[in-house]
Amino acid sequence: MSTAIVWFRRDLRIADNPALDAALRAHDRVLPVYIEAPDEEAPWAPGAASRWWLHHSLKALSVDLGKRGAALHVARGPTLETLRTLIARSGAVAVHWNRLYEPAVIARDAHIKASLREDGIDARSHKANVLFEPWEIETGQQQPYRVFTPFWRNARARLEPLPPLDAPKRIAPALVDGALTIDELALLPTIRWDSGIDAHWTPGEAGAAERLGTFIDGVVDDYRAERDRPDRVGTSLISPHLHFGEISPRQIAWQLAGNQRGSLSEGAEFYLRELGWREFSQHLLFHFPQMPERNLNARFDGFRWKPRNARLLRAWQSGQTGVPMVDAGMRELWHTGTMHNRVRMLVASFLTKNLRQHWVHGARWFWDTLVDADLANNSQGWQWTAGCGVDASPYFRIFNPVTQGEKFDPDGVYVKRWVPELADAPNSIVHKPWTDPDFLARSGYMAPIVDLTRSRDVALEAWQALARAPA
Ligand code: FAD
User: Fold this and answer.
1) Known catalytic residues?
2) What does pTM read for this prediction?
3) Mean pLDDT of 386-394
4) Which strand (E) or helix (H) includes residue 92?
5) 3-state per-residue secondary structure call for 134-160
6) Mean pLDDT of 50-54
7) How far is the CA of 235 from the centre of ligand 1 (A)?
8) Distance, CA of 247 to CA of 61 (rounded, Å)
9) Mean per-residue pLDDT for 236-253?
10) What is the pLDDT of residues 81-100, one digit of tens each?
11) Which residues, judged by CB distance below 6 Å to any ligand atom, belong to the binding site of ligand 1?
12) Helix 324-336 to helix 401-408 angle, to the nearest 10 degrees?
């Protein structure tokens, strides 16, 4: 009788889980383990909203494992010591896990793999959370890609939808005493700010499957047009489920292909391309591990950011800037733990260009408040918008929150949902209420904290100074 440990991390699912599948194939009993060790991910230990999600996702996984006869063993780190203790107590001869790509996690995992192997344990990691490993897609010169379009052309040509692994029907358990309860991890906030988030999400594998099903049965064919509309539900809302591995990209690709029976509709193809951006972000983070803190385009190291301004940052964070689309986005984020992609670009552009605050301040706030906070996607999204990434929006592209609002939220539905002060605003001014001073005074809303036109010009001047500076 041999026993294996399956070390769950951000692969909180039973179906299409290569580590679990490999352990079950090769061993008689399995001990599923979750080890809480946020310090090992420093300086990007999970933020508050992520910890909320993790709590609920672990509960869901625990129930799903229980239905199959196993129990999730919850413990606290340090991870290597904890694994060694569990190996000694269970008699396990193998440890399986699924790979992640954040720099601190890669270093930790490599050390754990080498140490366990020295102990004589069969330590194995598996590909589970990406369509392609970051090193599987490379240029003709065997270099990492820096531009998305050729990256995706190459990856897309190689992508064959493969059937996901079935969920096991039964797991013969190995049991070890001394587990903590999930509640003992104290992942939930002590001051309960999470009721809005709670109402929006169902963490766990079943919640993920339901979200994807609703999207594929509903709006996928119209995704190309609908995805830019924050006033409607035109996207899949799958990002936190993907981040925590409650669903795999392989499962999504397979379901898209199955649903379309062969070639994909334009909407489905476009959706797959967005998953391609997720792959590209992981590719960049793996090859350029400095991405979370440092400009990928080193030329930006000389950019004249304004010194950190606590007042401006607080106004931005709390949705009190007086710019309706920005405030709607930041309030949506605070209440639900998410924000529409177009609005993410817009609020990021506002912070980095109109307020000229360093993009890392924005990335940090998103890190703490997004339920889908993901080091690769978040760092990539911020560098793209700030213009300092490798395949970035040009710095001189400064999103105009007024015209963007008029185009993508034409009836002000999104703004009115999150900025109730503007509930009675006529469409003509809902995205620029300062143009009607009488209305603004009556509404209780505020004047903008910055002049959009003037701040845009100043930002462009700063950028031109950078462009003129010797390289
Ligand atoms: P859909 O439109 O349904 O897309 C499906 C999936 O494709 C997403 O769940 C996501 O996994 C992937 N995807 C879509 N757009 C992107 C993109 N631009 N880059 C990378 N992957 C993408 N996404 C995160 O998952 N975590 C983050 O922390 C994060 N931070 C961001 C910060 C900024 C400043 C910006 C501009 C974007 C950020 N994004 C982040 C990307 C994007 O906004 C979200 O993935 C998307 O809004 C999630 O909603 P959805 O699942 O409905 O997306």
Assistant:
1) 274, 277, 305, 341, 359, 382
2) 0.97
3) 83
4) none
5) CCCCCCCCCCCCCCHHHHHHHHHHHCC
6) 97
7) 10
8) 12
9) 97
10) 999 999 999 999 999 999 99
11) 227, 235-239, 242-243, 274-275, 277-278, 281, 341, 344-345, 348, 366, 370, 372-374, 377-378, 381-382, 385
12) 70
